[in-house]
Structures are given as structure tokens and as C-alpha cells.
């Protein structure tokens, strides 16, 4: 497995971050790109590992701007106006060295539009100056994604979207949960128990993955456990990148509703059904039916349901489902 348990601390959720996103004045102009969500909302629950590749290779603050330039297929990092500046090899060397020491991270927030840290839609120019495409990632982030393909990554711009924000945080906490389990020593029982807790979350996000992961764990003796674990976490993280929307969440909510039919009266059944339907049509946020289900669990305890990550994928104080 690529995850190295000895480099992981289960007591804290470590998240890599572009230094400018958490307010460090390391931008080319001496400024920053501070994200309120990263700096104020998420910070109480994670430990940030800030990195600025451009400062790390000695470019200084302030500094000339740089961009990606395509020289017949060789993407170079050069000065935007001072074309004699070329920091390609320094950035590649730093990126390769840095990402090999990030096995303990559970997520990463990068800076949008940056030729080094950008996640997507980074511009690539012709040596003569005209734009060729805008479908690249930054040099550092490319190395990060190659070394850690399962690591949840988002940029500060996309995290302004409530759906993308909630999805990213869900993936970070799920990935940390998996890392914690692996670090404790993986066993067939732990694998099954882990999957049991994630069933409804996966169901909401991607039903085909829900079926595939269940089948994957159906025979844990068919291959080395480590190989099955690698396949499982790859499948889980893929499933969680598939944002559920109201259709997927309604499906999971209705399955959860079915567990209470034998215990609650007709009035409570109708109330729950009404809240789920109002969520389905957009009249209530997702937190409304979730809260009602959690209330019913207090009244009618069920061990299987109470351990479902879907009902609480991250701390309530983040309040991310209030906007979904």
C-alpha cells in the first residue's frame, strides 16, 4: 500500500495548503489569497501544512510573475514578461522532493489559477505569448496528484461553492478515517466494519460503487488483503467524488426511513416522509431530514444506523449541509 502508517498521526487531521490561502503574504505582489473557509471555518478541525513552492525555491517576495509555456511539448515555467526567467527545473525538483514527504496528509487545498499550485484550468502559453489552452494543473499540483492520486484536493476558488465544499470536507474526513484504520493494523474484520459504516454515504453518492464495493468485500480470501484494501479505498474515494445531489440523497434517506417503519407510529412515519419529500423538491436543506433521523435514533436506538457516517460525516459545527 502506498500509504505509510508510520508517517500518519491519527490524533490530528493534517491538510496541506497553499501558504497564501491561509493568509501568508507570499504572493508575487506580497499579498495573499486568504480563504475565509480554510482560515476560519475548517481550521479548528485540521492541522495545516502550508507550502509555497515559489518561495521555497528562492524566488522571493515580491517577485516577477511566471506562467506555463509550451516549447514543442516541453512545458516550461517562465517569466510572464521577463522571458529569461526559467524556474522549471527548480520547481520540478522541489515538487518531487516535497510530495514524497506528504504521506500523512488527508487532504490538500491549493491556490486557484496558480501556475505552480493551481488544480485545474491553468493557462499554457505559446513562446510568442498567445494562449494555447487552459486545461492544465500547476507544476507542483501535478506532482502532488501523481504521487497521491487518492488524496482529496480542491482549490480555494471552488471551495466557495457549497456543494464542492461539502464534498471536499466529506472526502477529507473519510480518507482520514481510512488512514486511521490502516495505521492501527488492517484486518478482514476491520475492513468489513469500515465498509459497514460507509454504506449509506456511498449509496447516496454512487449506487454502482455501492454494489461494487460490497462485492469486493464478499470474498476477502481471493487475494492478499493489502491488494483488496488498495482496490477498496480507490473505489471508495472514486465514489465520494461523485456528488450525490437531491436524487442520491433522497435514495439514501428513504432506505434509512425503512429501518424505522416497525417502530414509529403513523404520524411519525408521515412526518419523516414529508420532510424527506420537501428536501427532494428543494423546500428544505439536507440537514432537515438528517436531524429528524438522528432524533428518531435517540428515541429508537439502532447500533447499525447510529454508526453510519452518512448521518454525521464531519463535525456539526461546520454546518455544511445547511446549504445543500
TrEMBL record:
Species this chain originates from: Echinimonas agarilytica
Lineage: Bacteria, Pseudomonadati, Pseudomonadota, Gammaproteobacteria, Alteromonadales
Cited Pfam families: 2-thiour_desulf (PF04463), DUF1722 (PF08349)
DUF1722 domain sequence ranges: 199-315
Protein name, as recorded: DUF523 and DUF1722 domain-containing protein
